[in-house]
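Hi all, posting the design record for the shared folder.

TITLE: backbone redesign
STEP: 1 of 1
STRUCTURE INPUT:
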C-alpha cells in the first residue's frame, strides 16, 4: 500500500460518510451575486447552478459511502467538478485548482461562498474508485427527471 500526501493509505477502504451540500450561502460572500448576469443563461455554469441539485442530489451517492465516519466533500460538488473537469479537459489537480480560484466553478456547484474550502485532488480519484466499485447501477439507470447521463461516454 502507498501513502498519499495527507498520510492516508491508498487502496485502503476508509469509512467516509456522505457530505451534505450547503443549501444557501451568504449573499454578500456567495458566488451567485457575482456570476448571475455575467455568465450566459444557457452556459454550462448557469445550467449546472440551476439543475445541479436535481441532477446530482447528495442522496444519489449514499450507497457508495459508509453510515459513520468523517464527512466527505459533498458528492454533488464532486460530481459537478468532474463534469466541468471533463468538459475543460483538465487533470485532477487542475480541476481542483479551478474550483478553488474560479468563481464560476463554485457558482456551478450551487453558488458556494468564495471562501468555501477546496479539497485535495485525490477526492476525485476516490470518487471515481467508489463509483467503479459500486458497479455503476445508479450511474447508467435512466432517471425520470432527466435523460442526461454524465458518467457514460458518448460515442
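Okay, here is what came back for every position:
SEQUENCE:
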Amino acid at each position: 500500500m502507498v501513502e498519499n500526501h495527507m498520510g492516508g493509505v491508498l487502496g485502503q477502504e476508509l469509512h467516509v460518510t456522505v457530505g451534505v451540500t450547503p443549501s444557501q450561502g451568504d449573499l454578500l460572500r456567495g458566488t451567485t451575486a457575482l456570476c448571475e448576469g455575467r455568465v450566459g443563461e444557457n452556459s454550462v455554469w448557469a445550467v449546472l447552478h440551476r439543475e445541479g441539485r436535481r441532477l446530482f442530489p447528495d442522496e444519489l451517492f449514499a450507497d457508495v459511502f459508509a453510515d459513520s465516519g468523517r464527512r466527505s466533500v459533498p458528492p454533488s460538488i464532486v460530481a459537478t467538478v468532474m463534469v466541468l473537469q471533463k468538459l475543460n479537459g483538465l487533470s485532477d489537480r487542475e480541476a481542483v485548482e479551478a474550483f478553488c480560484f474560479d468563481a464560476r466553478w463554485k457558482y456551478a456547484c450551487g453558488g458556494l461562498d468564495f471562501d468555501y474550502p477546496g479539497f485535495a485532488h485525490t477526492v476525485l480519484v476516490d470518487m471515481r474508485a467508489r463509483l467503479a466499485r459500486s458497479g455503476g447501477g445508479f450511474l447508467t439507470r435512466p432517471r425520470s427527471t432527466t435523460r442526461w447521463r454524465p458518467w457514460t461516454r458518448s460515442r
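COMMENT: The mean pLDDT is 81.
Let me know if anyone wants the other runs.
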